[in-house]
Amino acid sequence: MQPVITTRLKKQIKSLPSKPGIYIFKDGQNKDLYIGKAANLKSRVNSYLKTEDSRIRRMVESAQTLKHLVASSDIEALILESQYIKARKPMFNIMLRDDKQYFYVGFSKDKFPRIFLTHQPTSKKGYIGPFTDGNALKTTLRYLRGIFPYCTCTQKHNNYCLNYHIGKCPGFCCLKNPEITSKGRSEYKKSANAVKSVLSGKKLSLIKKLEKEMISQAKADKFEEAIKTRTKLERLQRIFENARLINEFKSLEDVLNSLKNSIGLDRVPQRIEAYDISNIQGQNATGSMIVFENGRPNKNEYRKFKIRTVWQASDTDMLKEVLFRRFNHPEWPLPDLIIIDGGKGQLSVAASITGKLEIATVALTKNAGHKGEKITISNNKSINLSEMPEETRNLILAIDAEAHRFAISYYRKLHRNILR
Questions:
Q1: CB–CB of 69/125 below 8 Å?
Q2: For the chain, which end, N or C, has fewer CB atoms within 10 Å of the first or last residue's CB respectively?
Q3: Rounded CA gap, 378 and 355, in Å?
């Protein structure tokens, strides 16, 4: 049963942008009921209209208006949400998620402070939060640590840790007998303070501080230091410009389950293989096989095929060759789903190779603009992509685009070799 909401609230939800940000449900007295974040405001808030959770339905039915703030990225949305929840303490945030489910970032009182996550801060001082999304927070810290290295080692040791060698730890901070310069102490403190500034929502002041520092270093002819500071600035700004660092709206498990239901599979596809043929008038024709496992590309499993059939062969014949050669490798894991370019003809050819293996296969048909339009499944039933959930449609298109990219890259490599 869908929640009963006001016409005004429906209009406000309908007008939400498909951008990252935070949303605030308010009651008739303009008091905050619930504050949340989203990678896609429209999709996220629309999901509340189909909820079966009685507590969320009660919250939505209590709301009279909806406000939102657009963020530059998922990370900024995460930080904005934390600030707003901390300052306003909305009633339903407390009801739907008790304090033990919130995440806080702690800074230890060591000489070189460690940065860690906890559900239960011992005091409000020295901790930043609350954050509702642990995975998003961990991702954010991972990016920040690559720019501003800090220590996470729980014990002192004699040799430099692995994180030091990959640029995520200054190194001296966790040695038993370190040789530490005053500059090293200062740099570590600046890194820890930079992480604290970003998570506290002081990104702009940090950027200004780094810009000022870079200019000062350049004027003092400390060009190497100025370049390092500039690199930190660029990487920090890149994080906040990338609006898809964290996919918060739906987990990949949900998307794969939706894919299963959309095309009538017997089980959730854990391994998906997609094939693409690339050729110009049959010359240097190539085939590609790319693999997605649990919704993510596994490039270690990608395979290239240089077409051996005569050059007059059709794309369908080439596809048949690629599939035949692929399934002559019993040591390769079998897929749960195969996606190929084309229509009924290509699907029929694929079925002649994979039929005995009982592998679900679909053909993706494209329009005149070479964009995916519909898929054909084994019983020749066609499904328009526009009828599928957005996340499922995007996954299919992403897999197909990756197969095409991989095939083209191999074709171009062969073509360059001939021209040399």
A1: no
A2: C
A3: 10
The C-alpha atoms of residue 279 and residue 136 are separated, in whole angstroms, by: 42
pTM assigned to the model: 0.53
- Cβ of 279: how many Cβ atoms within 10 Å? 17
Residues ≥6 apart with Cβ < 8 Å to 201: 79, 80, 82, 83
All structural domains of the chain: 7-96 (3.40.1440.10), 106-241 (no CATH), 252-415 (3.30.420.340)
Burial group, residue 54, by CB count within 10 angstroms (0-12, 13-18, 19+): exposed
| Residue 258 exposure: Cα atoms within 13 Å on the Cβ side | 18
Phi and psi for 162 in degrees, rounded to 5?
-60, -40
Instruction: Write down the mean pLDDT value for the chain.
Output: 82
User: If pLDDT is split at 50, 70 and 90, which confidence band does 245 have?
Assistant: very low
Q: CA-CA distance, 128 to 86, in Å (whole number)?
A: 10
